[in-house]
Specification:
heterodimer, A: mainly alpha, Non-ribosomal Peptide Synthetase Peptidyl Carrier Protein, Chain A, 56% helix, globular, B: 596 residues, alpha/beta, Rossmann fold, Aminopeptidase, 3 domains, eight-stranded mixed sheet, 18 strands
């Protein structure tokens, strides 16, 4: 299982927010600082924090907390 | 690995920054925490790149903080160095990182290498030179400008690849353009990529989507090198390497293993490691680094090693100061700094003992400390880091002769004993000081000295080469340089005076000298010439001031000693003024003043 608190903390660090600001519906649509540049940093940070490699086809698509959780869940379960 | 930031909190933010394995998210939160507590930014770097490298800023701030510098980072626009220059200058940027990128010339330019005709390649090179020459000319006001070379992303074809030939030609062009400017350093980007390995240096996913080719690991290594090249953004200027002896210069303990038993032969292991280490230290010495010994040993035995041991690479003449005794190393390091007349923060200390390293780190935090690793092969990595510290910022202009100059100073100190009076001694030195006014060929050295002089620096204005050029060209300003020589040798350009004439008032804006030449009266002998020049330009009065810093207390009463009356004093700042006709500096007849 992915530790949601840890996941929120990583997203918050990269976007320069506090972890409380990352709700279950957080996404690049609801958080203004979540731009394409930050998203790239987020993918790199997630890979390092969870010890996974996010495939290219997913990397650009996971622009919400929920999607990130699903993709990480799959990668960690393998 | 489910609670990365939680563990970061527990470790303390500074430890996270120092941990090479820290993850991106950990570094990001640790940086905000440490920077929030730190003083206002001490340096400001602008990044102008032909690729997306925003994340580099994060790593630059990390390594700067680890060196005690809070760094502000400004990002330029994509591939717009000239536009960035203007924006950066307005924002107060003082250091500049220029990172051209091969594929920004035109898409898939790497692949075009094999397609380009010679004429097209000639045109490319001319275009590259022209563009960057313009940028570097516009960058003259920045303190350091780091121009990164070009590199390839794809793997080369074994047996010769046209792209490599093109790259070496274009990089040679950039190197040559960089060499024309005193404040510009060429940065070997291809070397950095090779060091890390192509596979680990790039992330092609983001390269193809976002023009962001570099992996976090490459950006981290890049940032560490930029710190070294910029000399910690001007905060550090390392001058001397202080070496322990046992298990540092040779394997084993001289007092126990004796000269015949220490490991130092180039044909043995681990002797070969120490032989190589000594050779590296000698190379540093030849490039201007002052080598010193600080060892708990019998001084006679160490001298015998230096004089006679067949496998020693370093000899007596290569060592400028020795503290070989049984005293505390902290005391000895202070003595060495005193003998050389340099600050403790100019020292790098290398010792195999964890105890000694810890003692120096805690009691002399200004000293940079390296420990010789327990495993000899790891030693080479430590030496590489030491070389970076001294050399990445460029060897100093007259560095090679420096040990010789310091030695002359030490010999002169010894000779001092034999004379009846101090003046007799000074007279025996055949001292000459050559004054040159507004000499543009000396600009680079003048600017360098203004950056390095701390102790005898009355106002501590740090000039860039461009500022010196501007002052030199200004008819109301005289930039005087002092070249000092004595019968032992030439000390080179070791002093500067900047005088501005405005109406009948001459203002001494700057006065700084290398501490190597102080104490001989030169700081007094120069004034008749300088004031005569000011009088010839219509000045009748002279004003001067002392501005205190953490390091220049020894110069606080200089103008009093020169005979200028104090007119105001506030918060350590001292102001002076007098009519030129009323001023008679203390005489120093033992010095011959020449004009260049």
């Amino acid at each position: 299982m992915i530790d949601e608190a840890a996941l929120k903390q990583v997203i918050a660090s990269v976007l320069g927010l506090s972890a409380e600001a990352i709700g279950p519906d957080a996404s690049s649509d609801t958080i203004p600082s979540w731009d394409s540049l930050k998203h790239m940093n987020l993918v790199l940070a997630l890979e390092q924090a969870f010890g996974v490699v996010i495939p290219d086809e997913d990397a650009a698509e996971i622009t919400s907390f929920a999607l990130i959780k699903v993709v990480l869940q799959d990668l960690v379960a393998v | 690995m489910n609670a990365p930031t939680g563990s970061a909190m527990a470790r303390g933010s500074r430890d996270v920054l120092a941990d090479p394995a820290a993850s991106l998210a950990e570094i990001m939160s640790a940086l905000s925490a440490v920077e929030a507590d730190a003083l206002p930014a001490a340096a400001h770097i602008g990044i102008s790149a032909g690729a997306t490298i925003d994340l580099l800023g994060l790593y630059l701030r990390r390594h700067a903080l680890l060196a005690g510098v809070k760094l502000q980072v400004s990002q330029g626009n994509y591939d717009d160095p000239l536009g960035d220059l203007a924006r950066f200058a307005e924002a107060g940027v003082d250091h500049l990182l220029l990172a051209p990128f091969l594929d920004s010339f035109e898409p898939a330019f790497e692949a075009r290498a094999a397609i380009l005709t010679d004429a097209e390649l000639d045109a490319r090179e001319a275009d590259l030179r022209g563009r960057w020459r313009l940028v570097l000319q516009g960058a003259a006001a920045f303190r350091t400008v780091i121009l990164c070379g070009l590199h390839r992303i794809t793997a080369p074809v074994a047996g010769g690849d046209p792209l490599d030939a093109m790259l070496s030609r274009l990089n040679q062009a950039l190197r040559e353009e960089a060499a024309a400017f005193a404040n510009v350093r060429f940065f070997d980007m291809a070397g950095l990529v090779a060091n890390l390995g192509r596979r680990d240096a790039f992330d092609l996913r983001f390269y193809l989507r976002n023009a962001a080719p570099y992996s976090p690991a490459l950006l981290d290594a890049w940032a560490r090198q930029v710190l070294a090249v910029s000399r910690a953004y001007g905060a550090r200027f390392h001058k001397a390497l202080v070496l322990d002896c046992d298990n540092t210069l040779w394997g084993g303990i001289l007092g126990e293993d004796l000269a015949s038993g220490v490991k130092l032969s180039a044909q043995s292991y681990p002797g070969a490691v120490f032989h190589r280490a000594q050779t590296e230290f000698l190379a540093l010495q030849r490039q201007g680094v002052l080598l010193c010994l600080c060892s708990k040993n019998d001084p006679g035995e160490v001298d015998a090693m230096l004089a006679q041991h067949p496998d020693m690479v370093l000899r007596q003449a290569d060592i400028i100061a020795k503290e070989v005794n049984w005293s505390d190393k902290v005391v000895n390091l202070r003595k060495i700094a005193g003998t050389l007349n340099i600050g403790l923060d100019s020292l790098v200390f290398l010792d195999d003992s964890a105890f000694e390293c810890a003692a120096v780190r805690s009691q002399l935090p200004e000293v940079t400390v390296f420990q010789v690793p327990a495993s000899p092969p790891d030693y080479l990595g430590v030496i590489a880091a030491i070389k970076d510290l001294f050399l990445a910022g460029g060897a100093t202009t007259d560095g090679g002769a420096k040990t010789e100059q310091y030695r002359q100073r030490a010999q002169a100190l010894a000779a001092q004993q034999a004379f009846a009076t101090h003046e007799d001694y000074l007279a025996s030195l055949d001292l000459t000081v050559t004054l040159a006014r507004d000499d543009r060929t000396r600009t680079a050295r003048i600017a360098e000295l203004s950056q390095k002089s701390n102790q005898f620096n009355l106002t501590t204005v740090r000039y860039s080469a461009r500022e010196i050029d501007r002052l030199t060209a200004d008819p109301s300003v005289a930039v005087w340089s002092l070249d000092v020589a004595d019968r032992f040798g030439a000390a080179g350009l070791t002093g500067v005076v900047v005088v501005r004439c405005d109406g009948d008032m001459a203002t001494i804006e700057s006065l700084f000298m290398s501490c190597r030449v102080l104490g001989r009266g030169i700081e007094f002998a120069i004034w008749p010439s300088i004031f005569a020049d000011a009088a010839a330009r219509g000045c009748r009065r002279v004003q001067a001031s002392f501005r205190p810093t953490a390091k220049n207390a020894q110069a606080a009463d200089f103008y009093d000693r020169l005979g200028l009356p104090l007119t105001a004093e506030a918060e350590g700042m001292r102001s002076y003024e007098i009519a030129l006709a009323a001023l008679s500096p203390p005489p120093s007849p033992w010095i011959k003043v020449l004009h260049d």
